Fold each of these.
Amino acid sequence: MGKKRRPQTTKAGPRVTSAEIPVVGAREPCPCGSGRRYKACHGREAAHAVAELVQRPFEGLPGECDWVALRELVPAATVELKLAEGLPEDVPSVTLATVLPMAWPALRRDNGAVLLGLQNDTPSGDISRDLADTLRRALTAEPGTPVAAERVSGEGPRLQDLLDPKGGFSPTLHEGFEFWLEDAASATGEVAASLERANAAAIPTARLTSVEAAYWCRTPEKNHLRWVMSHPEEKLLDALARLHAAGASSLGEDTRLVGSFRAHGLTVPVWDLPGTMGAEDTEKPAEAFAERLAEALASDAPLTAEQRRARGGLTNRQVTLS
């Protein structure tokens, strides 16, 4: 059992406005001193800074499905980003990273390069706008410093405004987090220990090359394939139900379509794979499944009773991540 919070005594004093409360982690005590967690106090107001939650914050960006995967599924990956107006003269590169040390929203390296963290709590309902604000501040931050989270208005630019729409999106997956440091081999003390802990927690993950935005991962008991798809959810679930009822939804022997995630407006079907089935072994079965899925998506025939039962089972096993 955790310790009970002591009652907070209130003292008369100047009223603090929401804009003066710094952004902290959702589970941390609110800086206003209320004794409540940030997400239940001023974090709740921050979450409504954008009037309406943006269901698909990465829509319109190159590689939307991969953005979702790196935000929710992939432990260690980086992507070189291209800005619509080009890089400032003193910024040699901008790199998106799944996560940064100390959960920093962004980091300006000593050499001026910018690292932008993706897997952070964001203070508003529009992840794209929050990331764009962090990126803009990182571009002018002092070299060698992290960039803190800040509350943003609903008027600022989004990533879709800042990034080159023709810049592409090609994730590089890493076994660990050595990309945090310019010279990871020379890390010592607490830095080395932090890096070791992060590496130990990373699940081995690989992106398939035969299809788009499909990520294989290894866990102690079994392997999985998690495939982010941009098809309309209802249409996709119908197609998966057609295949499932026909016994055509697996990726081969001892594999099984077990359900799906819903993340940032997209659907992510998930398969269980045997522990002996590696990423390379999954390539051809995934490619063949993509062909079957395309045929099922093209059908407008009403679902049969068996297909409706299959669809109900898939829907019941759907988990929302965002």
Amino acid sequence: MHKEYVDKYYLTEVDTFDHSIYCHHAVMGEHHVTEHYHKKGQFLYTEGGVVFLKTPEKSYFLPARHYIWIPAGVKHSIHPSGPQVVMRNLYFPPFETDTAFFEKINIYPVSDLLNELIMFTNRWNGNIFPEEEPKFSIAKAFKLILPEISPAELPLALPYPKNDKLKQIVNYLEQNISENISFKSLAEHFDISERTLARLFQKELNMSYIQYFTILRMLTSLKLLLDEKLSVNEVALRVGYNSLPTFSNTFNKVIGVRPSEYVKNRNLLL
């Protein structure tokens, strides 16, 4: 019954009225939302676990205290860590004031101000029409303020390789994330020249091996911190860092906050 309700909401109700803003807060109740798209842009914030969002091109990792903006027309599926995850969604029609910000799918940290605004929207559910004032103007302002309070997009996404050899390599890295795998040893393991391997990463994934492996490790770290409740020391070792300061600095550079701060706020975020 719940599945029918979720299906009805995200596949039919969101786009029923072109000019409305649609708001939906609910416990997932299921382990994934199948691939679909909307005519409206989507603001998605989650509580109670970790969410992977997959498009045909990339896999995005949405941790606590972050939101993802999904432009209109982008096919995506949603995969939460469990059915207890709460999804807070706002779907917006295009406005004349829209900037390039709304044309890109990206993940951004949630400030205290934005968190207050998200909680304010909890009182809404369903369509908000232009004639419903001041509700519509407040909801519209929510969208308009996003570029101003979301200055730092985070690289919490990894592209999918299409090349069969690179698929094997990426799978190998995922399975051996605790190992310090040098570029040279990786090339030797897969019987490929370093030059060819470097070219493969840039062509297929648009990043270097070091960039890819670092982001993979940091996304895995987030999952371990949030889902498995491991300590920062345990997580650092699990993803191949013997030096806690190096791990902390790298985590901060990629995620935007130090792991110790993330753990301190963990119970508040989930």
Amino acid sequence: MLIGFAGLGRMGRPMAANLARAGHTILAYDPGPNKGVLEGITVVGSAVELTEASLTISMLPDGATTRALVVEGLTGAADGHLHVVMGTVGPEVVREMAGAERMDIIDAPVSGSVSMAETATITTMVGGTAKQFERIRPVLAAMTSAQFHTGPAGSGSAAKLAVNAVLAALSQGIAEGLLIAEAGDLDLKVFYDVLRNSAAGAPYVGYKEQAFLSPGAAGVAAPVSLIRKDLGLALDLAHRQQLSLPGAEAAYMVLGDATEAGLGDEDMAQVLAALRLRNALPIS
């Protein structure tokens, strides 16, 4: 299948590569600087060229960039064109575009890290009709290991924001637990072994161990800035429904502290460093 793919960032590159490996013909475009050659993928110079395909996918960082792509770049798409928003932009943007544009627009944001995108083990949450879900599912299966139909357009984005609100709270909970253990003179590696095997030992706790205990060697799975952006979108949604979410508000504040401390491009586990700074503790 010929597929147009917009967004060759940290997540988009391996996702597009997985589509090509699955046998699809990929036209790729990125609104930022040239990201270099991708084997099996034809990189084009404008979003307009993506409309040669009847199916396009965007994996862009925010709602403004995604809206610009759809409204300005894909306007020449033929009738029946389907565009899948896989970046995390918030449900309102998706619903607005789905209601205003003549093409079909659904959302399918993903949950998982760059390494999981590389191995096609991320999860996607799809907002659209049942017919649209069945149409897109084989394509999504080339990039993801699980696909969930969450409801109409925009519902996938709402699910993604809810997931990342939980992740932000988990990261802060782990960081605070480590500080409590440290205050009690525990060896942090020993404590982490306890934590991983305790009632709180969610899978996330296990695979984030190195990020918390040896951040210099762990690399960046999801940066502070990205999680803060997503949590901000989640809180915007909550506030529109007059919800009070004190845990999410606290996590957002600490992510803000991390950003102000120059940690925005570091892994989200660096909330631990932000809490150390807040408490005038040395950053290990």
Amino acid sequence: MIDSTGPVWDAIVGLSRFGALAAMAELGCADHLAAGPLGVTDLAALCDADATALGRVMRELAAIGVVRSVAPHVYELTEAGQVMRGDVPGSMRPAVRVMAEEGYWQALGLLPESVRRGRSVFVERNGPYYDYLAARPEAAREFNDYMETRAVPIGAALAADYDFSDVKTLVDVAGGNGHLLAAVLAAHPTVRGVLFDREHVVEGARASLEARGFGERCELAPGDFFTGVPAADAYLLASIIHNWSDEDALRILGNVRAAMPADGRVLLLEMVLPDDDSPHIGKEVDLRMLALHGGRERTRGEYAELLATSGLALSRVLPLPAGASLIEALPA
């Protein structure tokens, strides 16, 4: 007999499993285990944690396969657990820490009320999520680390799979630390870049871009995309439009359309949802957008309609890693 409660119990149990991963990430357990197995008492001393409580967490981590016991109360990292180290390429530790941050959990806990109202209760109580992060430097640093890790495979695919050969100037709208822009500049030496974001963000990106050798090829332009954007022949908006309602998204896209020439283009890097009920990571992210921002993920048809209302025409959609897609739009 099929247990019809299975999917529900899987989701409920998933909270405890994630809680164990969150403790592992916050305490730095994987970094301490990088050199080899440790007993719980020694590991607790290194993590400044209670040994009994940590032992209970390690038991759960062993059950989900990120550590294994090699002797009673002695654990080592599994291959799957290596990604929880902070010093490895593609580390998942920043992602876990971002999603375990107090405000993030609060937003998801408020999701039922957000669904009832049709808008983010978290935003009503705390203001926009990025303002919330700006007031919490440690949380903002973890978020930036997470976005940088996520940007590596996507940036490599973007630079390799899309033809930037006839782009003169690429504006990375709300580009954060400029990781995606840097990937494009590195692969396409004739392109000039403009990193456009809030003033404190672009100032924080300056050292990173200069260290990569892009100081002379990349202009830093502080500003607000609700007010206007710099003129250029190409614009990249990576994980931007999904943060906003249709009304706000139209304001952003309208400002981009007003600034671009007749032969310009807009590149949206987003998750494009399937039209049916097939599984897609974007459907999970969509609920986070509702909870944290009041934004949403969209289908191809919904993006086409949004772009058309902004005076743009969807030209094509290219698949990228991690469930992402690149949507190219041209002036209508």
